[in-house]
């Protein structure tokens, strides 16, 4: 994405797009990280002259480097099942309440901590001298400089969200070597210059800085939420996941919050992303893959015509994390809760979107209760902002207006943080004002009856 920022200008141009397809070898699901890096180089070449580069990606995953700075194997995908049982094993060494009090992180089976525990005793971890989270690894290849960007570090379950520094006690209790992580850096910090070999590959010239951004895509997406000044808002960052929550000034580390599995990830400027992961459009993407990638448009139109809330599944259930057989797994979940099994592809799609809306509602409500903050409007950003049915259903389920857009919030947030570091824009209010005045947004007003949603929630024990 090439971003352009001026006093009254904020545009994105998609200059290059490449697929991100995981590869299974030897029973392990990997990222094709060199293929992704090649896509980054191709994108930079297609961009032409740039003033700055910022890298963001999904969270928690990492590459290991040996003593020569060489990559030790392809990074393992967080959807690989190597971490099954690790959270339980961690609990025998450190009480879950102590882990939460120290890190504020939701338990997801793939948190970096559990991945590192699963890797203990492997040759690769034994040979590793450095660990780089995915965007930091890309930045390292671009610049030769290693750092650990803070917003993404906050997803490792090794960081104290109150201080923004590593939690030594947690690392010691779980046997994790913190010296593998290079020093922390913050969004806006300089992260080096493009190496001569990168300039040669991409045709770029001169000193081109890489600037640390909210390198966790969700941190960048929250920067890209077009909230108006003084607005009480919740956000839903939709894509493969739906990340549903609030922007707070301080973490919520209570036992209630832990039991509700809410996370306190860090945002820019000392903010906390208080949220919970909902399975997201992954459910839909995996069905499409299973069906041989039919066009989504006609299926969505058919789904919109069907009666709503016939069957719903718990879109917060970690049982849906692994890839494969998604239509069957959804059918099984409906059967297990005594609901009709969706009888067509459109019906399966409708079940997914109703279920996501229901999970969005539950999570926004939980976030308000646990933080003591009330919400007047919900912003949907990311790819799901283009899905009118999902936006309308979310508004209906919550009984609140939904403002949808921008779909490319993460790329916009990434661009804005770089622009600020280079003196083109001021504080967060200004960034959001620029988003409000330049981006196309659609408002969905709630319609229908909330009781139908209450009844559907009760059917899956998610009232
Ligand atoms: C979204 C995201 C989520 C994180 C998940 C795994 O792309 O970054 O925030 O929980 O991917 O890294």
From TrEMBL:
Entry superkingdom = Bacteria
Q: Which InterPro entries match?
A: ATPase_NBD, FGGY_C, FGGY_N, Rhamnulokinase
The cross-references to Pfam families, in alphabetical order and at most eight, read:
FGGY_C, FGGY_N
Instruction: Identify the keywords attached in UniProt to this record, alphabetized.
Output: ATP-binding, Disulfide bond, Kinase, Nucleotide-binding, Rhamnose metabolism, Transferase
Q: Give all residue intervals belonging to the Carbohydrate kinase FGGY N-terminal domain.
A: 50-224
Every copy of the Carbohydrate kinase FGGY C-terminal domain together lies at 234-421
Coiled coil spans: none
Q: Which family does it belong to?
A: Belongs to the FGGY kinase family.
What is the name of the protein in this document?
Rhamnulokinase
């Amino acid at each position: 994405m090439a971003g352009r920022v001026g006093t009254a200008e904020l545009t994105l141009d998609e200059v290059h797009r490449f697929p991100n397809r995981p590869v299974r070898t030897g029973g392990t699901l990997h990222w094709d990280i060199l293929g992704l890096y090649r896509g980054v180089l191709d994108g930079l070449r297609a961009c032409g002259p740039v003033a700055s580069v910022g890298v963001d990606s999904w969270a928690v995953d990492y590459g290991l480097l040996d003593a020569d700075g060489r990559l030790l194997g392809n990074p393992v995908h967080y959807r690989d099942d190597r971490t099954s049982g690790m959270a339980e094993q961690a609990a025998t060494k450190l009480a879950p309440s102590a882990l939460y009090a120290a890190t504020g992180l939701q338990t997801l089976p793939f948190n970096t901590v559990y991945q590192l525990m699963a890797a203990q005793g492997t040759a690769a971890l034994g040979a590793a001298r450095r660990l780089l989270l995915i965007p930091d690894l890309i930045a390292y290849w671009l610049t030769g400089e290693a750092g650990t960007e803070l917003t993404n570090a906050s997803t490792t379950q090794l960081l104290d969200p109150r201080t923004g520094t590593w939690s030594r006690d947690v690392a010691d209790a779980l046997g994790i070597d913190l010296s593998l992580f290079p020093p922390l850096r913050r969004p806006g910090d300089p992260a080096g210059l493009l190496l001569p070999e990168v300039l040669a590959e991409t045709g770029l010239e001169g000193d081109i800085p890489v600037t640390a951004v909210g390198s966790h895509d969700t941190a960048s997406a929250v920067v890209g939420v077009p909230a108006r000044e003084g607005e009480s808002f919740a956000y839903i960052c939709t894509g493969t996941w739906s990340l549903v929550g609030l922007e707070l000034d301080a973490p919520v580390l209570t036992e209630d919050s832990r039991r509700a599995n809410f996370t306190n990830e860090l945002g820019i400027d000392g903010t906390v992303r208080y949220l919970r992961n909902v399975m997201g459009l992954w459910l839909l993407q995996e069905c499409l893959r299973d069906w041989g990638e039919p066009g989504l448009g006609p299926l969505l139109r058919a789904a919109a015509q069907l009666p709503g809330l016939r069957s719903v599944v718990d879109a917060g259930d970690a049982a849906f994390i692994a890839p494969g057989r998604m239509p069957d797994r959804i059918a099984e979940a409906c059967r297990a809760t005594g609901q009709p099994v969706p009888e067509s592809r459109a019906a399966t799609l409708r079940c997914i979107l109703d279920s996501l809306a229901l999970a969005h509602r539950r999570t926004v409500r939980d976030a308000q209760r646990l933080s003591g903050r009330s919400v007047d409007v919900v912003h949907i950003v990311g790819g799901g902002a283009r899905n009118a049915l999902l936006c309308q259903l979310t508004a209906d389920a919550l009984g609140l207006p939904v403002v949808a857009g921008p779909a490319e919030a993460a790329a916009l947030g990434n661009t804005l943080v770089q622009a600020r570091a280079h003196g083109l824009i001021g504080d967060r209010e200004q960034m959001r004002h620029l988003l409000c005045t330049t981006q196309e947004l659609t408002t969905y007003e709630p319609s229908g009856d909330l009781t139908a949603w209450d009844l559907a929630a009760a059917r899956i024990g998610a009232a």
